[in-house]
Fold this sequence. Notes:
The protein has eleven helices and 28 strands. The chain is an alpha+beta fold. Among the domains are: 1-103, no CATH class; 353-547, no CATH class. Helix 4 (106-120) runs antiparallel to helix 5 (127-147).
Amino acid sequence: MILREMLAAQEKNFNPRKNRLEEFAHSPGYHTRIPDGTRISSTMTNILYALALLELGGERECERAAAVTREVLKLQVTDPYDPAFGIWPWFCEEPVPEMAPPDWNWADFIGAGLCHMLREHRERLDRELVDELKQALERAAWSIFRRNVRPDYTNIAIMGAAVTGCAGEILNNPLLSEYAASRLATFLRYTADQGGLNEYNSPTYTFVALRETERILQLVHSNAKLLDSARKLHAFIWGEIAKRFHPATCQLGGAQSRAYAEYLPEGIVDLLRNATELPLHRAVPEAKETGLLAFSYDPIHHLPCPEELRGRFAGLSQPEEEIRQRYVKRPKPEMSFEGTTYITPELIFGSINRECFWTQRRPLLGYWQSGEGERPAMFRMRFFKDGKDFSSAGVRMAQSKNRVVFALAMLTDRGDWHIGLDRPADNKFTFSSLALRFELAADDAELADSRTMVSGGHKVVVHGLPGTFDSRPIQWRSGRESDRVWVEASLYDGPETHVVFDETLRTIVGGGVEILPAGAVPSAEPQLVEEGDSYQVRWGELAVCNCVHALPYE
Length: 554
């Protein structure tokens, strides 16, 4: 859809009384108290809407863009003594002090939009608004400078360099320019030492990181050190994407640190298709829009995929490959995060050696072509508390090709739905059910037996072993829900109970998983051995050990 048509489709969503584009609230479950489905105005959406209007460039469009932008600028925290100085709220209807808690990243996200306005559309704005934009950008830049996120916060580390680097040139501030160059150079050195991006294989944030390098290359003109780092980082990120892209399913392999959906979204596939000039297909048809039509606009001019990597997106050069990579380096090697991804022309299957079960995590993830429809089969491992993903459960795993062993432990320093924002003060969690679930989503997904799930030409066999949680035996069971089948270890299912997640809580839950051709014979069962305060799961050459007591994630 061309830009003029995109904007015309939004007319019914524009509120001329408030000079805001409206939509329905949809949050990940934190930062905002506004219920999903409430009609709201997103600050981010409105800045992108204003940028799209400016890009179109007509007199009427530029007048509306200015009015929309002024409405957003009003919402920035301008008190330099306020810890939230320089940031904006998610929604116009919920000022920063009312958020739960504020999102400091909005200095980066909104600040990036202001950079585009001042760098690429200044002549379409009146002098007074240009001055207001420069003041707002300066506040956002100093917020980013003061916060100074660590390089392990991958996407924000890069985005903050983009905003401060562009702001340094626009505001003629050498300190901001120097800070941006130093920040991105530090990120490059840190990533090389770590072994990869800390936010590993993220179908969302790997591409955000890629886009932010392109934003730097588009908006920064004279900061040679920053530009040099951005070019190197751009090539590196493309290499990371190429490693785990699976041509047959058009998916990014696991494990994944942060994901919001089970399949690559349309926008990412379009980006890959355009950058590689290959006929890549979307795995999942887009759902039909209901109610307000969501608005999205990308002001970044995307660069092509490096020529030497294009072939990797067309097909595999060998019949199978196993990639092992460290993503996060810790002083104790056993606490580092190391991933394994097994790739064949039909299958991609990956794991991480240690992780929690935050809803954005995909610690065990596989894709292959299913027998029916365009959507690939998707297999993943989750942990549920009362039917929702639960962050205070952790797992250790070891993988060899198509086989993985796992051992569970509860965590003492994680939250509930979110990893940190909703942890109870006394570490006492309330629940009616806890379950470690292995699920297979596919149009033709079936349960062959109580431990075997089948789709297309492959099957997943879950080798669940006897175990205990809080002195009670676990129960293995299986079932179906909607488009998926599952096998799970039920740690608790009964009346509401309260359990303190501390070092006195004991958990022994382990086993193995293998993905096989549909007609293959499963392997012999793994073995579980208790060894004092730890337990080990062994499966042929594979072995993994975990603590029987709840322990810290970090």
